[in-house]
Amino acid sequence: MTRIIGGLAGGLRLHVPLRGTRPTSERVREAIFSALDARGLCDGANVLDLYAGSGALGLEAASRGAETVVLVERDRAAAKVAERNAAAVAKAGAARAVVEPVSVAQFLQRSGRQFDLVFIDPPYDLPPAEIGFVLATLAPLLSHPAVVVVEQSKRSGALDLPGDLVLERARDYGDTTLHYLATAGTTVDG
């Protein structure tokens, strides 16, 4: 079962797509939001959740005080699930997330918005070159300061970081590695 862990919608059960996604485990989400909450990075943030699936990461940020949330998911069935979950989280009093049913590349290339907090949770089989492209395309859309959390398989190796994005830290949870990236001058503790 996937649920919102904390904040206004804490305990709310989220629906998950029947196929095609790999939901972030509750243990990993707890680790992510413990680190982010310790720095107050969700409160008032403009959040982007790429490869959103059910929207669990972005909606958790909404529940914890994000000002805006954009969920990008190209799979139509998964985008509908994310829309349903976004409505339920908004009903609990959190910010209403906008679901963009397009590819990550399409969204990043046409978006002019700035984001403070970004989640990137691609399919584990996504080639490293594509993740590098996503990070390079995302970099101009980041506020200063901003934090990017990338979730990938432990076997995926190091990230190819563009511009002023730096690796603050990486943590392993079973087969999952979380990479905390930041723009210059931003730190993630925890």
Automatic annotation (TrEMBL):
Transmembrane segments: none annotated. GO terms for molecular function: methyltransferase activity; nucleic acid binding. Keywords: Methyltransferase, Transferase. SUPFAM superfamilies: S-adenosyl-L-methionine-dependent methyltransferases. GO terms for biological process: rRNA methylation. The keyword Nucleotidyltransferase does not apply. It comes from the Bacteria. The keyword Methyltransferase applies. This is Methyltransferase. It comes from Agrococcus pavilionensis RW1.
